[in-house]
């Protein structure tokens, strides 16, 4: 089985001083997977199936060592306008400001959003803080007529969707 590594621009494998391929690091592999999912699911991709959304978000958020809070901005037919990582936090938290999410939604002319963040701990269960944040964001976005469709937590290869729990 051959091993390979991607160069920093991900266009060519990296060779060591003797011309041999170096193994890719976990971060390089995850970065390459994120680029592949960006190519596969570009602007206009429909996010009408929860399984599709979960696959996309697992690829985008799994493997980060710190919490990353992201928003999928969608049009009226739930097609992707943009995926935006709003902020990167600490190993166990990220401070999200509703005002910034509303501003971003308006800038993208979004009709709907799906929130997501990762749990580096590997536990996909939403915390009370996660629930309270989701409610605050939903209330703020409702004022500008942007629907909140879901909040999905990614923990490695596991996900938890608020919709599946009956929380949205």
Structure description:
The chain has helices at 26-40, 50-61, 98-107, 128-142, and strands at residues 68-74, 80-88, 112-118, 147-155, 158-161. The protein has 168 residues and is an alpha+beta fold. The protein has two domains: 1-40, no CATH class; 43-161, Cytidine Deaminase, domain 2, CATH 3.40.140. A five-stranded mixed beta sheet has the order 2-1-3-4-5, sandwiched between helices. Strand 4 and strand 5 form a beta hairpin.
Which term fits the overall shape?
Answer: globular
Which percent band covers the strand fraction?
Answer: 15-25%
Number of helical elements: 4
Radius of gyration: 17 Å
Q: How do the strands line up in the largest sheet?
A: 2-1-3-4-5
Q: And the CATH topology of the largest domain?
A: Cytidine Deaminase, domain 2
What's the architecture of the largest domain in CATH terms? 3-Layer(aba) Sandwich
N-to-C order of helices and strands: HHEEHEHEE
CATH class identity of the largest domain? Alpha Beta
- Summing up helix and strand content along with how strands pair, one would put the structural category as alpha+beta
Count of strand segments: 5
Tell me the number of structural domains: 2
Helical residues, percent = 25-40%
Q: Mind summarizing the main beta sheet?
A: 5 strands, mixed
**Full CATH superfamily name of the largest domain:** Cytidine Deaminase, domain 2
Uncertain segments are 1-12
Distance between the termini: 46 Å
Pfam family, one: RadC
Domain MPN: 45-168
GO molecular function, one term: metallopeptidase activity
GO biological process, one term: proteolysis
